[in-house]
Design a protein that fits this description.
Elements lengths: L4 H16 L1 H9 L6 E3 L3 E4 L2 E4 L13 E3 L2 H13 L5 E4 L2 E4 L10 H6 L4 E12 L1 E3 L21 E3 L4 H15 L7 H8 L3 E5 L5 E6 L7 E13 L6 H17 L12 E7 H14 L1
Antiparallel strand pairs: 1-4, 2-3, 5-6, 7-12, 7-13, 8-9, 10-12, 11-12
Helix pairs in contact: 1-2, 1-3, 5-7
């Protein structure tokens, strides 16, 4: 690969859309707002374990995933499946892959909410490099806000699993595309009060630079690794914890942070429900 395989996945997505509707592909590519899709990197397999590819892809079975939030794009993908597969070969980076199979899942926002369960703690595996954007708040020496911010960059990039920035990035996508509206104001206030905190990363987190192309200066830095989170006991709220569960299940499809269309911010969410914790505590009581 010329660069991180997530960029090749994005290129494949645009090529698929362009093969059916060139005008739509151009509109999506030129869009300045939230992109109506996200991509995974290209995955290879080590036994049964799926492994994200960075700069090299071996021969054998590969997988790539697209999540689409826009109905017109969905219909365009269906058009590709129905009539544009050609000889069953697709371009992937510099190479050509033979199309083996296509599968899809339809996800409903309302069902994500209805099936959400209260959680007390959870683990997130940040599978591909992840970073978050944050608008800086600048202060003078006397701690008052600086009125003229023209001298400052509009964003700073955070290479750390900050819970507030992570959930805000997920909420932004939900608000923009979801047909099931939720008022997240109380949830954001609850988050900003310090309700969800990082409780550890026993095996550490690592930072990695990924380049969009080796000869350009387009690159970003992101972190990977398993991170544990907990909800502070004194601030625990069942409905807020259900929204935590709902948003993180959604984020497994949408990705988190920046570069979602290029396979960045791919996560695996592992919750601990209140039921599991109650059962565990009951077992301890009986043993005691």
């Amino acid at each position: 690969m010329q660069s991180f395989s997530g960029f090749a996945s994005r290129g494949l997505f645009y090529n698929i859309i362009r093969s059916v509707d060139e005008e739509l592909a151009s509109l999506v590519h030129a869009g300045k707002g939230l992109a109506p899709f996200s991509c995974s990197p290209v995955y290879s397999f080590n036994g049964e374990r799926r492994v994200p590819c960075f700069s090299k892809i071996s021969r054998g079975l590969l997988e790539v995933y697209f999540t689409v939030f826009d109905e017109k794009l969905i219909n365009t993908l269906i058009g590709f499946i129905q009539g544009k597969l050609g000889g069953g070969e697709i371009s992937l980076g510099r190479g050509v892959a033979k199309l083996n199979s296509i599968f899809f899942t339809e996800i409903f926002y309302e069902k994500l909410y209805e099936s959400a369960e209260p959680v007390e703690s959870f683990k997130i595996n940040f599978i591909t490099p992840t970073y978050f954007r944050s608008s800086p708040i600048e202060f003078n020496e006397d701690s008052s806000r600086i009125s003229d911010k023209k001298a400052f960059t509009p964003y700073k990039f955070i290479v750390f699993p900050d819970p507030v920035l992570m959930f805000k990035s997920i909420i932004r996508v939900w608000r923009f595309f979801s047909d099931y509206k939720i008022d997240f104001k109380d949830f954001i206030n609850w988050l900003e009060s310090g309700s969800v905190v990082v409780s550890g990363y026993p095996q550490g987190i690592k930072t990695r630079i990924v380049y969009e192309h080796p000869t350009t200066n387009k690159w970003c830095v992101g972190f990977t690794g398993e991170v544990y989170f907990t909800i502070i006991k004194e601030l625990y709220d069942i409905e807020m914890s259900r929204l935590v569960d709902m948003l993180l299940k959604f984020a497994e499809y949408s990705n988190v942070g920046g570069g979602k269309t290029a396979g960045l911010g791919v996560i695996k969410y592992s919750p601990k429900s209140l039921t599991e914790l109650t059962d565990r505590n009951s077992d301890h009581t009986e043993l005691g």
